[in-house]
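BUG-463 | component: ligand-complex export | severity: low

The export step for flavin-adenine dinucleotide jobs runs without errors, but we want the raw record kept on the ticket for reference. Input record follows.
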Amino acid sequence: MPDSFDVIIIGSGPGGYVCALRAAQLGMKVACVEKRATLGGTCLNIGCIPSKALLQSSENFTAAAHDFAAHGVTIGEISLDLPRMMARKNEVVSANVKGVEFLFRKNKVTWLKGAARIAAPGTVEVDGTAYTAKHIVIATGSESVPLAGIEVDETRIVTSTGALALQTVPKHLAVIGGGYIGLELGSVWRRLGAEVTVIEFLERIVPGMDAEIARAFERILTKQGIKFRLRTKVAGARLTDAGVVLTTEPAAGGEAQEITADVVLLAIGRRPNTAGLNLDGVGVALDERGRIRVDAHWATTIPGIYAIGDVIAGPMLAHKAEDEGVAVAERLAGQAGHVNYGVIPGVVYTWPEVAAVGQTEEELKAAGVEYRVGKFPFTANGRARAMGDTDGFVKILADKATDRILGAHIIGPDAGTLIAELATAMEFGAAAEDVGRICHAHPTLSEAVKEAALAVEGRALHI
Ligand SMILES: Cc1cc2nc3c(=O)[nH]c(=O)nc-3n(C[C@H](O)[C@H](O)[C@H](O)COP(=O)(O)OP(=O)(O)OC[C@H]3O[C@@H](n4cnc5c(N)ncnc54)[C@H](O)[C@@H]3O)c2cc1C
């Protein structure tokens, strides 16, 4: 008799491991299959956590090199110990992945080590051994999208995985793709001394984010020394002794050019990871972009099989995967698990950070919604001045008739933390006036949020 579970979850990323923990909390007998040597998926091993560790370290390096002196802190010549920085990043990853292992033990979740294949509804094979389950949840995540003509070797032409583990600082790093992963990792290596050129097919960076914020972001990153080649497509790459030579062409067509870089980071997006699962065999349908098709309750086209996280539609973000994991576990337990896709914050962890929740101005215009805008710059915020971090602004979009907050966009210090207040406000259906009337501690960056809310009614006080 094969081992049998209430639920087998395939993949231990933030979608899978959180689903496993919640299902165990709700009294189910749970197994989670993971083929990687450590738990935690892309996010903990090669995504969110190592990138944030390097962003923090490189931020500290830049602050010491350029900012401390203005505060009257003189530290003489500083130098970079890259092996130590990388070792610290690995320690941070290790602590996090061991944390998930501990949580599995604490919640009695069985880790089935190996690669899973769905033999039939209710049966999962892990490296050939069969297990049965009442429910199967697919949480196999995503992988970097390849580009024709660019062969990744993870040394000279790298994905984010290679860019998180370079042994030396490249003289010139070319980043293909102006999305958040390219900009975060481009920032890391720029701060550590690399010349960085971002090549983007579209006429703007961070597609999907509010266009005004994207323009401000590009200006700030340009000030930090990152170069941008927008409306440019990469047609091919060749390895030479002088470096990787990229052939680029104007996106609209035209004469080809070449860029030579020591390292090229390919960061044009991620695609769902479904290989080897036997989805075809069991009849689980995919959509036109290769994502697993699910209904409003994460059920696939085959009864008893569910899917969550990067492998289905929606923003490829860890917290979106986590919330789906919780919701599907609750559904399996007969509860009313739910995710509000209208209020999922997105953050770019550069410095300044960029954060958004809800709709952009472009989306509101396209939907014909009448709205008002309230903006407040960090140059007018006392705490930002005290920190010496005055780049950026808070922008709140509110319904013209009801004042309900429809979207919020922040570029500035700690934007990723500040956005939580506006996500909370949106979940409670708050009006901009509600946020403007809340007492915010002084002096804090959050006062810029309050002032932007007041600005919706044209009554900001400190500008
Ligand atoms: C460089 C980088 C930085 C990022 N930074 C952020 C960030 O700051 N914030 C944020 O919200 N998101 C960030 N992301 C995105 C985030 O990592 C993903 O959205 C998130 O990990 C998706 O979670 P998931 O559970 O769907 O899948 P994943 O985390 O991808 O986990 C899937 C797991 O399934 C396993 N698996 C796959 N197939 C099988 C199989 N057949 N059998 C067994 N196991 C299998 C894989 O080994 C993997 O461990 C980042 C991503 C990258 C690459």
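Assignee comment: Attached the raw record above. The two ends are 72 Å apart (CA to CA).
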